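Reviewer 2 asked us to include a model.

Predict the structure of this chain.
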Amino acid sequence: MTPWEIQARELANCNCSYGCPCQFNDLPTHGNCEAVVCMQVDKGHYGEVDLSGVRFACIVWWPGPVHDGKGKCQPVVDSSATDAQRESILKIMSGEDTDPGKTIFNVFAATYDEVFDPVFAPIDFQVDIDSRKGHIRVDGLIDTKGEPIKNPITGDEHRARIDIPDGFEYRLAEVGSASSVTLGNIQLNLQNSYGQFANIHLNNHGVVHA
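Predicted model (structure tokens):
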């Protein structure tokens, strides 16, 4: 098993209501699951390959709950990544070199029926986790905007978090609102649904509790 570890910032948007029932072992809001996820590695490696600064994303879709499988995945890696970085990120995304069930990559990979050829393109990504703001843009493929949830009466920003001590993705996530339009092999149109803003620290064995 090739040792790897990443510390990254994440913005994700799925079609569920704020809070996302999946985070609580419940069924998805609308019966199916579809999402856009992007991460920027601030520090990381795969074996001897330095992954610092690499951005990657995926568009995912399942006809029902994730655990029922039959999913589809469109991987995207920033075109500025070297060949070695691309190969390493794709191996991590595919759940390779990971203890079974210990990372979101490994768990999700087991539910895909189809993984499309990766897209290598510039990824415009910004995220401020504490303020619950960010965006993901890949020309002709992804346009995502994340923002805080607003109180429907006062318009004030609302702040809520999800704390999962023994999860397979993050330790603590800020919850916001997000909207996405995607094109290509998986076409989504998500409006004002669950937005997730999180610091990610993962390795072969799962979430790293520093």
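DSSP finds two helices and 16 strands in the chain. The chain has a mean pLDDT of 97. We have added this to the supplementary material.
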